[in-house]
Write a structure and sequence with these properties.
Jelly Rolls, 7-stranded antiparallel sheet, 231 residues, single chain
Length: 231
């Protein structure tokens, strides 16, 4: 009997072949073929403002490269456009809650809604349970700012008691009382923050913040929720 010795090179080649077969399987190829890049319209960037003087161990390093395209199932649309918005602060300092879903994303104050100090949330009713692929959030992009305790959740009911799922949470010390998050703080830009929702299902989207590096108030310009209604 001849003993066959499997060298590291042979083992590596075998692993590569298995990986190729898996990646190139008909099901995987078909799934990728059913996806396309989301068509996200970006506002004009603002080049003024005071440079940010803020450091945190959980602050994400800023990238000056364009955001890569986000691939989602074909037919995904912005389900939040024109939908009803409610909030923990029903009487904003200025602006209207409807600004969050009106399609206007400019850096001008005309498109900005300001909620009161402390932990506040804004909530969008998508109208029906939907499969959500991505959420894009613009807080304020006329200056470099970091918003604290950004938490984004999805649920089946307006009271957030049924099928509550967290899409994003960068509250590392649980100061908002929503649990400790592991996501990074980030600097606001005209691209907004794109959050991968991974196809979770829900009807209501609730977004929390707890002040920012400039003051203790909370701001929103626009929120887009890309997905498809569940049939």
């Amino acid at each position: 009997m001849v003993n066959k010795v499997v060298t590291p090179l042979v083992a590596l080649a075998a692993c590569a072949m298995v990986a190729f077969i898996f990646v190139a399987s008909p099901a995987a190829v078909a799934a990728e073929a059913e996806k396309e890049a989301l068509k996200i319209e970006l506002p004009q960037p603002y080049f003024g403002g005071t440079p940010l003087d803020y450091f945190s161990e959980i602050l994400e390093e800023r990238s000056y490269k364009p955001r890569p395209p986000f691939m989602a199932p074909k037919g995904a649309t912005n389900l939040a456009k024109g939908k009803t918005v409610t909030s923990s602060d029903p009487d904003p300092n200025y602006g209207k809650l409807a600004f969050l879903t009106d399609g206007e994303k400019g850096y001008q104050q005309d498109y900005l809604v300001e909620l009161a100090n402390g932990v506040q949330w804004a909530q969008i009713d998508l109208g029906q349970v939907s499969e959500i692929y991505a959420i894009v959030l613009w807080h304020f992009h006329a200056a470099d700012r970091v918003y604290f305790d950004v938490v984004v959740r999805v649920a089946d009911d307006a009271e957030f008691t049924k099928n509550v799922q967290t899409v994003y949470n960068n509250d590392h010390d649980n100061s908002s009382g929503l649990g400790v998050g592991k996501d990074k703080e980030y600097i606001e830009t005209y691209e907004g923050r794109l959050m991968d929702a991974k196809g979770i299902k829900g009807r209501y989207v609730r977004l929390y913040t707890n002040g920012n590096t400039t003051d203790e108030t909370n701001h929103y310009v626009e929120v887009e929720v890309y997905g498809a209604p569940v049939k």
